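Design review, sub-item: ligand-bound model
Attendees: FS, YL, KQ
YL presented the inputs for the acetyl coenzyme *A complex:
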Amino acid sequence: MIHARITGTGSYLPERILTNQDLEKMVETSDTWIRERTGIEQRHIAENGQLTSDLAEPAARRALEAAGKLPSDVDLLIVATTTPDRVFPSTACLLQQKLGIHGSPAFDIQAVCTGFVYALSVAEKFINTGAARCALVIGAETLSRIVNWQDRGTCVLFADGAGAVVLEASEEPGIISTHIHADGAYESLLTTVKPGPDVDPQRLADGTAFIEMRGNEVFKIAVNTLGRIVDETLEAAGMTNADIDWLVPHQANIRIIQATARKLDLPMERVVVTVNKHGNTSAASVPLALDTAVRDGRIKRGDTILLEAFGGGFTWGSALIRF
Ligand code: ACO
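KQ shared the predicted structure:
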């Protein structure tokens, strides 16, 4: 059996920071409301003209460097994104060109906030079957381009960033299991009316490209669904709560994260939280959080990590990893 093992992580955040105080000047909200309801204090926002592949490139290079790999070693490139640079070519192809990789398969995956977990699950299968030996898996978003900056219910939540991992063939596990799901019956609770990669002035005027969310309903379903996926993941591996060293959750809302930690009976010291500084970066949030905890020394080789995510679709998923 060929296992897939994460050998390097990397991430990138655009320089510009938008604080809750900045948002107070844009919509009727308050720093207190945002922090109490979501845990978010600030978020990073891409510059005009800075596209998803521009954020993905430095994250990818950092992951390759951490793994001791060159772009020419990569034989599979997957980008999870909800905000591609263009309808086509895929952001993965645009990134492939920026990295100087030629000939490897390169494609995007769209599963909104669960995109990175989906991409990891697909890359794992390529490696398990011998179809790839060194995969670059990236979650990258410029969600600020599809946020309605007049809608206080969503504009305080979403943000931009990128995270990446290098996944290599190994005799040692590695990724223990991945679990991915979707149920399109819930599409209307979290949606964009007319999705598209670029917000042109007309669409800004008529507001059709923007994220729309029935936050309260999404919240309740997210908490229940993530509780179920925790059970499914542990059961499949024959593990218990006590076997998990770190929870690296999708960073949507601190209250959703706390609910999943409670379900796992895991103290918050064992949960990687970046939502306070990064906001909700959709497909980028899990690899961004993973890289943060790897680089600050919390997550160490040999640790058992549970990644989980929930997002528009609805989509949801998890990955159990021996790091
Ligand atoms: N500032 C001040 N007040 C606000 C704001 C704001 N930014 N936003 C909403 N409010 C108001 C509402 O208008 C409402 O007022 P009312 O009672 O007078 O009608 C009140 O606050 C409560 O609104 P709720 O929506 O019930 O607030 P809730 O506690 O549910 O928090 C939130 C909202 C933060 C959006 C929460 O529901 C949430 O996090 N939902 C889940 C988000 C998520 O996980 N999404 C999935 C992943 S994202 C993806 O896939 C792209």
